């Protein structure tokens, strides 16, 4: 199915494009600990790509490598056909990558609206003095960006909490606000670190629907880490399975589900 | 009804009224909807253009005269426009309750034979597609919100915006036909068909003519001096007759502006931003607001609390009198003015009633304390009594004659009579044409002279001429000893306690009464928080011994007051149980307008009722519940049965309230 370098067509008829990001032989060490061992895989345009694995498998580290936060000791990250140099976080954002965090990282004292507005920071060109004076360019820029933010608020159905301070929101809604902030940056590649962690069934269903809608509506490429196997298998087009820093499987949910090594990793077979 | 031969001032249909509004005051706002955080506005001229484009679009997809077009969605301008556009092409709009599950909707859809369906969003489209497995007459589905719709098979589906654009583009082809169809509309053509939710049996399609709608709108608008500067907030279900009359009938007749909230969850914020001048809400909304005010006052500072209580006490004494135009001393007026500046004004503003000129509550009895609270603030809240078959209005309270315990005098042009069994009958220009495809029901409800039986029992108070409702005629029964059993009377008294959301009283034909009680999660939850009562679920809170104790004290209080009424003293609650789940429309226990389906509840919980009568201390039960997406599950619980103290009537009579 993946022989075609131009992409493939999913079961539900979505066209997946060429390779957006390619990880080549990535190895990441923290002192003596090898978090990721010689892993290669790619992410294609428009697909929902999941990274799964048991606790401590190195999933979050992998996501941090993709986002440029960790720099691997060995291996290369290719983004849009070019080898990516070491970058600072804002440079990553400028390249069109946005993410959410496993342990929600919002500004607790600020309103939902202000939080989502921060996602537009990369689009604001006026400086602090212009903004303080609130004249001409600064004003029109704010209006423009507010419009984009309102579309996300509408999209994620959080109008009713627009002006509520984030600290007063329940967990499930905070997760949604974080997604809104990431989406407000209009990313080409969206990284989600355990978007369903700690949610109840209803919240998970909502979140799954939003992830699918984002992919469908904006054509955003999504890479996500998730523990809930049911969700992963339903949502994603292709899955990378990691265990103890190694890649033990890669393919469609069905292929992965029937992979003996994956089954062993999840059911707990002793490792030599 | 002399003037009606040619229609009220020649205005025989809603499209005609729309044309008048667009030409006479085209620049005035007609619709507002909050979207993307901003109130978007359409003037009458713009609305007329949109509606015409939609009507052209309807012609393009082949809507014929007399076709039914179902509209399922929340209150949005596009949905109101669809209904008027349907009328333009000679079709009949049928708004449906959007929260109904597919199964419920199937019956209605099949019954009205709708060939076209306007859906609010993907959720409704999915439901209609599910319905199509059993109902095959649907030719075309239209939807308002494009989100998530890209992957659907569009061979018989379109976005409303798209057919609007196609309609405008092809206007040269359809203009003549559309104008012809608009010109054909007469006063006796069907304006809308509304399904009554029906506390018993299947829903019935009430056919209302242009005459019904326009005459009712005109009479009621004149009664309250409504003009085109009013602002209303449209948030009640579009399938409900009240919303049709307020948001379409009266809005088109008067030419005032209809404001649609951003979503159901933002209604309270939107209410505050709009500050409607004319407002309608079921008692539940006012109750919730008052509960919230009281909860927030408890969190306020000492000074604010003292000010609030001081001035509210004063308002309670003179506020209502001032509103009724009764004489009040100069000093009292002065203090009231000061209170208005410091407390009432800001409070009204917070509630969204800063510009409130006239408003109604109906559908259920409202607690006298709640009613008086709003009146004392200077909010002109009144009561009316009506039903779908009457195009809303049967009786209304005129300014200056407002009381909590009556529903007012007959509305203009309405005749009223009470038959021997105590059932209320009426005759008016608003009386419905017929139940769609159901001549038997039509004949049993409406007699040859046009009198309609309401199914409610009541009497006209001789001193004031006001109507008082006792209960649903079929619910009024007899106890074993022959005394009257009127459940609503007792239930309402209990429901006036903020802790209690819903009550169902049983006792017809028995020697004593027992009750089911639902707690109000907001009020009781708040109480639990304050008193460090831990609970994990609704069920646990409802069964908490201290909650039961509180409810028991409420029941005791009500029993005392019921005992004081000679006619109904037999209806005291002997034993009760606090239910483990809220009665819900999704489970069929209530109608979509939130009225308890007594018979259904009695069947469903027969085991609990048996336990209430056989003297057992507790009862274990398993109840089936339906989730919002239609799946079913079950919850089991062991409920404690509480014996409530009753007053022995012969021994001593408690003074009336």
Total helices of chain B: the number is: 21
CATH homologous superfamily assignment of the largest domain in chain B: ANL, N-terminal domain
User: What's the N-to-C terminus distance of chain B?
Assistant: 44 Å
> Which strand order do you get reading across the main beta sheet of chain B?
4-3-5-6-7
- How many strands of chain B? 28
- Roughly how many Å apart are the termini of chain A? 33 Å
Radius of gyration of chain B over all CA atoms, rounded: 26 Å
Poorly predicted runs of chain A are none
How do you describe this structure in short?
Chain A is an alpha/beta fold and 272 residues long. Helix content of chain A is 36%, strand content 25%.
Short key terms for the protein model shown above:
heterodimer, A: 272 residues, alpha/beta, Rossmann fold, 2 domains, four-stranded antiparallel β-sheet, 10 helices, 36% helix, globular, B: 657 residues, GMP Synthetase, Chain A, domain 3, five-stranded parallel β-sheet, five-stranded mixed β-sheet, 22% strand, disordered N terminus, disordered C terminus
Structure description:
The complex is a heterodimer of chains A (272) and B (657). With 272 residues, chain A is α/β, with parallel strands linked by helices. Chain A has two domains: 1-96 and 187-272, P-loop containing nucleotide triphosphate hydrolases (Rossmann fold, 3-Layer(aba) Sandwich); 112-186, no CATH class. In chain A, 36% of the residues lie in helices and 25% in strands. Chain A has ten helices and twelve strands. Chain A has helices spanning 59-66, 89-94, 112-118, 128-133, 137-155, 171-184, 201-218, 229-235, 253-257, 260-267; strands spanning 8-9, 15-16, 19-30, 33-44, 48-52, 74-79, 82-83, 97-100, 189-193, 221-225, 238-243, 246-251. In chain A, the strands form three sheets. Chain A has a six-stranded mixed sheet, sandwiched between helices. In chain A, helix 3 (112-118) packs parallel to helix 6 and helix 5 (137-155) crosses helix 6. The two termini of chain A are 33 Å apart. The mean pLDDT of chain A is 86. Chain B is of the alpha/beta class and 657 residues long. Chain B has three domains: 2-280, Rossmann fold (3-Layer(aba) Sandwich), CATH 3.40.50; 283-428 and 447-472, no CATH class; 477-643, 2-Layer Sandwich (GMP Synthetase, Chain A, domain 3), CATH 3.30.300.30. Chain B has 21 helices and 28 strands. In chain B, the strands form seven sheets. In chain B, strands 4-3-5-6-7 form a five-stranded parallel sheet, with helices on both faces. In chain B, strands 12-13-14-15-16 form a five-stranded mixed sheet. In chain B, strand 3, helix 3 (77-88) and strand 4 (92-96) form a beta-alpha-beta unit. In chain B, helix 1 runs parallel beside helix 9 and helix 8 packs across helix 9 (241-255). Chain B is globular and about 80 Å long. The A-B interface holds A 12-13, 146-147, 150-151, 153-155, 157, 159-160, 162, 213, 216-217 and B 35-38, 147-148, 150-151, 262-263, 265-266, 269.
